Each structure stands twice: as C-alpha cells, then as structure tokens.
Amino acid sequence: MPPPTLPALDAPPAGQVLLACAECDQLMYCPVRSTGGLPRCPGCGVAQKASRPFDPVVPFALALAALILALPANIYPQLTFSLLGQPNYYTLIGGAQHLLDSGFWWVGLLVIVGTVAAPLRLLMLITFICLGWFSGAPRGLMVVLLKGYHHLTSWVMLDVYLLSVIVSVVKLKDLGEFEFSQGFYCFVLLLLTLSAAMTSFNQERFWQLLEERDHAGD
Amino acid sequence: MRAIDLHVCRCAICGKLAYQHSSGSSVCPRCHAPLHQREPASVSRTWALLLTAMVLFLPANLYPIMTVAQLDDSSPSTILGGVISLAAHDMLPIAIVVFVASIAVPLFKLLGIAVLLMAIHRGHKINPRQAMVMYRIIDLIGRWSMLDLFVISILVTLVSFGKLASIEANMGATAFGAVVVLTLLAAKSFDPRLIWDLQEP
Predict the structure, then answer these.
(1) Segment A60-88, tens digit of pLDDT
(2) B198 at the A interface (CB within 8 A)?
(3) Does B144 touch chain A (CB under 8 A)?
(4) Which end of chain B is more exposed for a tag (fewer CB within 10 A), N or C?
(5) Same-domain status, B162 and B96
C-alpha cells in the first residue's frame, strides 16, 4: 500500500510549506526559511519553530565543542567546601554516587539523568545526526536518532543545576569556606554551548530536509 | 481551517501531515510512528499521572527532605521549613527562588492541569487563549522544580564531615522527585488540541 499523501490541498507557494500547528491543529502556510522573526499560528499565536533558518554545520560544531567541554566539566571537581581545613569536592557523578550509596537511588538517578546522562546523550545524538546527514547515512538510522532527540530534550536540566549551585552557595557561605573549582568554569561554558547547539538544531526542519533528500534520490 | 476537519493527521513526532484512513491504524509515511488525530487516551492518562502526583505531593511536603546534623544537634527540615529558615537568615531573594521552584510551581502545575482536564470533561467553552497561556507556562516551568533535588545532591556531598557536620537526604526528597517526574509526564501526555476541539459548535 502506498503511503497516504496530500493531493487535495492546494500546493503551497514556492518557498513555503504546509504545516499544522502542534498546539491547536490549525493548518497554515509557513516560509521554509524565515529570516525576519518566526511566523506565528493564526489560531493560537504560537511561534512556528520549523521556519528558523537552519544549517546542520552550526549545531554540529557547537555539539563537538560542548562534548569536549563536557570532559573537564565531569572529571574535575566543580565545587569545594572546607570545614576546619578539611575539603570536600563535588563532581556531577560524585554527587549522584553519594545519594545512591546512602540508599536514595531514585533521587540519585534523577540527578544523574538530568545533569550527566541526558546532556551527554543529547550532544552525541546531535553529533551523530549531523555526521549521518553529511555522510548520507541510511534513512532508518536517521529516523531512530531524530526520534531519540525528540524524546530527550525535556530531560536536559543543566540550567536548573546552575541555579541550584547558586542556591547552595548562599546556604553554605556562612558555614565554611566555599570555592568554585576549574570544573565549574568548564561547566558554565558547557551549558552555554549546549544551549546554543539545542537552539540552532531545528529538528522540525531536519525532518523536511531528510524527506527532500529522499525525493531527490528517487 | 483545522487539520482534523480535513481528516488530516499531524505526526506527533515529526510533524508530517497525512490523510487518516477511516479504518485501521496508519503510520507516518516519514518516520513510521503511529498516526492519531489526537493523542489516544490523553485525558485518562493525564488524570492518572496527575492524581498520583497529587497523592505524593503530601509526603513530599510533610516529610523532611533533608537533615542537618551538627555535633549533637540534628534538625530535619521540610521544603517549607528550608524556605522559612532562608528567609529568617536575611536571604529573602534566594528564599523566594526556592519557594517558587519547590512549592509554587508544583502546586500551580497540579491545579492548572486539573483545571484544563475538568474543562474538557464538562465540555465547558473556556477561553482557549487563556487556557493555552496556562498550558505553555506549565510546560515551560515544570523542569525548574528539580532545583531542590540538585541542591540536596550538592549539600549532601559537600557537607559530609562525619560527627562534626553532615547533611543527609530524607524520605521527602524521594516523594518530591516522584512529584516532579509525574507532573512533567502529565504535562507531556496532555494534548492541548483538545482545548480547541471544545470551541467547535
């Protein structure tokens, strides 16, 4: 059975594409590449992110940079707290490990997913998706990777972690000596590059690009 | 013109538009995910997740989330207790941040999703624009409740000096983590297009 297509609707004007709003189901034409601000849904007013200008090279470069920064950010201690000259160090994995060891495996698991596993996985997915795009990887693989990206985005919580560091600093500053270590500066850079990579990675547009290339190859 | 009026499905994963065949289930021609006009069982699944979160919200707030022990003195503190002690120590801005992230946001999510679900159940024609603003806020702020769990993880690791001073996690943290995850999943499983379906005559 051939896949269902959309013959009855008017063909969109050149440079535009037919979309349905994810939030209110409104059908609309949107420019493929909008340089002056994002088009908005006429029904509910949500911005249509698929029209962001997109070039896979940009998120690829940013994700590679973030992956490199992720090494020192995870290996080096980020925070040091000392009481009477005796220091304790905080690394992302060490903190989760501490919770797991004291029996709070559920909280530890959430911490490790939000601050280590999800960000790293997301960066690898962006890298592999872009590499796959440049090297013409098989379509089935690209579909699996893009679906993985789609499900993962809301579990990356590095920005929340940054705020929790600030809260912890305020809570601890009267108790002993608190210091930021080199790992923390790498972490801030990691957060910036990761956010930039996620913003520049336009997954809606990527699906369209994949389909266009398939049609060109037929 | 809405997609459902033309029997057109928007793929939930990749956004592809495709005609829905009247009989049987169909899959997206682009990403092979199952196609549905609306998320199947969206309302009942959201209710289930939401009610579980509401039940767990009680132990999350009533049980202590961490215990601060210094020499012979050990004091367990709940989420609200932590906020109050921050405010009492002249750290009002941080107290407000923690209050918003740990108490106001989860409560707003629980009540907000319940209001949306009730409206769909009763078929009330609520103002869709106001409802969408609420839905978007719920979707946007949900992750920030993880704040307190990360703070616990940092404090527990940094303040472990044996008898001298130590901070330990408590049962409340586990319940609170479950509340955060359940409300996140509830917001995800809610299909906002159902609000707009109410507006149809």
Answers:
(1) 999 999 999 999 999 999 998 888 878 88
(2) no
(3) yes
(4) C
(5) yes
Across residues B126-147, what is the average pLDDT? 87
Domain that holds residue B1: 1-37
* B88 shares its domain with B137: yes
Pairing mode of beta strands B66-70, B165-169? antiparallel
Residues 6+ apart with CB under 8 A from B77: B64, B65, B66, B67, B68, B85
Residue B153 and residue B174 share a domain:
yes
User: Measured between alpha carbons, how far is A184 from A191 in angstroms, rounded to an integer?
Assistant: 10
Are A71 and A91 a contacting pair, CB within 8 Å?
Answer: no
Together in a domain, B30 and B63: no
Supply the CATH number for residue B73's domain: 1.20.140
The model carries a pTM of 0.89
Query: How does pLDDT run across B49-81, given as a tens digit for each residue?
Result: 999 999 999 999 999 988 888 877 888 888 888
**Beta-carbon pairs below 8 A across chains A and B:** 192
**Whole-angstrom distance, CA of residue B123 vs CA of residue B201:** 11
Domain count, chain B: 2
Above 0.85 for ipTM, yes or no?
yes
* B90 and B160 both lie in a single domain: yes
B190 in the same domain as B115: yes
B13 contacts chain A (CB < 8 A): yes
| Nearest CB to B154; choose among A95, A110, A210 | A95
Q: For residue A200, how far is the Cα from the chain centroid?
A: 10
Contact A95, B154 (CB under 8 A): yes
CB contact under 8 A, A3 and B29: yes
- Residue B108 and residue B18 share a domain: no
> Which residue in chain B is spatially nearest to A203 when comparing CA positions?
B14
Q: What is the DSSP letter of B166?
A: E
Whether the Cβ atoms of residue B42 and residue B189 lie closer than 8 Å to each other: yes
Shortest CA gap A201–chain B (Å): 14
- Contact between A168 and B151 using a beta-carbon 8 Å cutoff: yes
| DSSP H or E stretch at residue A159 | helix A158-172
Residue A25 has its nearest CB partner, among B4, B97, B188, at B4
Do B196 and A25 make contact, defined as CB atoms within 8 angstroms?
Answer: yes
User: What residue ranges define each of the domains in chain A, with the CATH number in brackets?
Assistant: 1-52 (no CATH), 57-217 (1.20.140)
Residues in chain A within 8 Å Cβ distance of B22 = none
Which one of B6, B11, B129, B150 makes the best mutation probe of the A interface by having the most chain A beta carbons within 10 Å? Answer: B150
